[in-house]
Amino acid sequence: MHSSSERRDPPAAGASAGLALLLLVPVPSLSTAAASFWWPGTTLGQSVFIAGKLWLAVFPLAWWLKVERGRWSGSPPRRGGFGVAVILGLLIAGAIFGGYAVATHLGWIDPATVAGRAAQTGLNHPSIYVAGAVYWVTLNSLMEEYVWRWFVFRQCEGLAGGPAAVVLSALAFTLHHIVALAGQFSWTITLLGSAGVFTGGAIWSLLYLRYRSIWPCYVSHAIVDLPIFIIGWRLIFGSQGVAS
User: Fold this and answer.
1) SS3 (DSSP) at 102
2) Residue 183 CA: distances (Å) to CA of 38, 116, 122, 178, 210
3) Ranked by mean pLDDT, which of 36-40, 62-66, 87-91 comes out on top?
4) What's this model's pTM, rounded to 2 decimal places?
5) Calpha distance 210→32 (Å, rounded)
6) Angle, to 10 degrees, between the axis of helix 214-237 and the axis of helix 187-211?
7) Which residue from 60, 66, 120, 205 has the highest number of Cβ atoms inside 10 Å of its Cβ?
8) Residue 7 included in any domain
């Protein structure tokens, strides 16, 4: 996903970085809104959501190859970083479980509301939920690192430099998660969850800035996704039995 030159994966050129961000960053928010708010549970909503996913998968690589004239190399983790990634992932996962325990104690999460909204997208069926969880933990987390850390971070770095890019790319990463959380939870949980997403995005951007590979970021991200789906299972199925 970057050049094989001595300075691997240089920042994007500032002149084109803004256009690249404009063409990519709004897409997941729009496609998530289509599936969660505008046309939930419909073929149209799901089609727009899938189209958004395809755009995220194709556009960054096409831009890199055709506009930036880069060469494919798979983002090799030559600088390591996996030990740090695992530790950070476990710490964030622990914070998620702790935050869930506090939110549950305070009555901020209504399992019936979450289960009802999950039913709109078919996630109230255990087999679909498990398949979705496997996809999000293994594949979606990888694609998000490819999009938000490798591509978006580099564009932000080209515009504003590395430290600012950490914040900017984390903000961009958070936008569509706000939409997704608002489709399932109250605004209290949405705001708290979005703060957590921003923190995770900033941490993974720092990992990318330090190690210049998406793979340590991916390992940490996959670890963090696991407690989210464990909690989701408990909210959707725990109090009502397993749906058919």
Assistant:
1) helix
2) 11, 11, 14, 9, 34
3) 87-91
4) 0.88
5) 31
6) 160
7) 205
8) no
Contact 45, 35 (CB under 8 A): yes
How many helices (H) and strands (E) would you count in the chain?
Answer: 11, 0
Contact status, residue 4 vs residue 69, Cβ threshold 8 Å = no
Domain membership of residue 57 (yes or no) is yes
* pLDDT for the residue numbered 6: 35
User: How many folded domains does the chain comprise?
Assistant: 1
> Which whole number is the average pLDDT over 193-209?
96
> Domain containing 34: what range?
14-72+84-237
Q: Answer whether residue 242 is part of any domain.
A: no
Is the pLDDT at 33 greater than 50? The verdict is: yes
Burial track 190-225 (b if 16+ CB lie within 10 A, e otherwise):
bebbbebbbebbbbbbbbbbebbbbbbbbbbbbbbb
Residue 8: inside a domain = no
Residue 54, token pair as written in the block: 């395809």
Amino acid letter, 139: L
Closest of 147, 154, 206, 136 to residue 175, by C-alpha: 147
- pLDDT greater than 80 at residue 44: yes
- Nearest Cα neighbor of 31 from 61, 54, 58 is 54
User: What is the percent of the chain where pLDDT is above 90?
Assistant: 71
